Amino acid sequence: MRTPRRAALGLGASLGDPAAALALAARALDALPGTRVIATSRVYWSPPAGGVARRPFLNAVVVVETSLSPRELVRAGREIESRAGRRASRRWADRVLDVDLLLVEGIASRDPEAQLPHPRLGDRPFALVPLVEAWPSAAHPVTGKHYAARLAARVALPAIGTLPRPTGGIGPRRAGESAMKFFLDTANLDEIREAASWGIIDGVTTNPSLIAREGRDFVDTIYQICTIIDGPVSAETVAVDAPKMIEEGRLLARVHRNVVVKVPLTIEGIKCCKALSSEGIRVNVTLCFQPMQALIAAKAGATYISPFLGRLDDVSEDGMDLIQKIVQIYANYPELKTQVLSASIRHPLHMVQAAMAGSDVATAPFKVYKSLYSHPLTDKGNAAFLKDWETVPDRDIVGQVNRWLSSRG
Ligand code: G3P
What we know:
By secondary structure, the protein is of the alpha/beta class. The chain is 41% helix and 19% strand. The protein starts with a strand and ends with a helix. The site of SN-glycerol-3-phosphate (G3P) has 9 residues, from α11.
């Protein structure tokens, strides 16, 4: 089995439904054997190049981790193109899909079937711009020069959207990761007990405001929550200097094995995170509002980073853009193990977007989860089923099945 390597593939399309073709290609690449998508760029619009094509192109780059050889990747690209309906055409002509192998980590090759790096990568802004976005540290395998440096002098390309990530690997998943975990954002024991009965809640987050709202003893409340939900329970320190925060954190961690110590994203908070995480105590770094804060927390060993998307939306900033950026940055550096915990969630759409962006966890208030269940058509459909069932002569399923089973001895 070849050691997996990072490889970048350039996608381009101008005929038919270009956006759908790019999405299909990303999914198909993610489904290749020994391969998974670890990052995707946004989708860029570029004018027809080469003087043959007449329609504008949509371009994007997908970065995969793969154990396939460059030739196998090129052949798979051809196969995906033909599956999308690509027919042989003149060079530079309009096409339904183009899949070009641009770069494979550490490989320079003159193989005519898989020249690496792609010989025209350096002077194609429609490949260079999305490449550097999806793989910022991408470098020439021989010179070691970063492609980002080449970009500086190049034209800016209009980004027209994000490339839907392959369902197989929603977002840049890390190996072995499971579906988005559901945390409850409350310190109210009644809400926690009821939510626990649903069987889908994986953890709880609290903060000083949520604790204050309950008017109960802090430590006992945290302990009670840990006995109701057998999963990570975030308890926040309130000291402002690192030594005191560390003392509070060490003590909170002794309340129950489920306790995760929550600290604010301040310099003192990060010092505390570094100290506690190096002692094996899980830390949730909270009040994150920009991507570099998230990288700082990850480098300090945080188990969770809590970007507050609702509070960004409150000030007319795009909270979901922050989540996407953090997921992307973490994906670029697989050695980082910090999980993205989307927080300050205000409504069901935030939950959908967090899952689409590949967030590891979402924490939401009780009422948001309640509304997640409901859909008018579900209720209407169920009511119709039950009404129709009223017309069935024998409506007692338990009785029927028991009789049927006993009749078969
Ligand atoms: O627990 C942190 C966070 O979820 C707070 O949310 O609604 O107060 O912005 P919110």
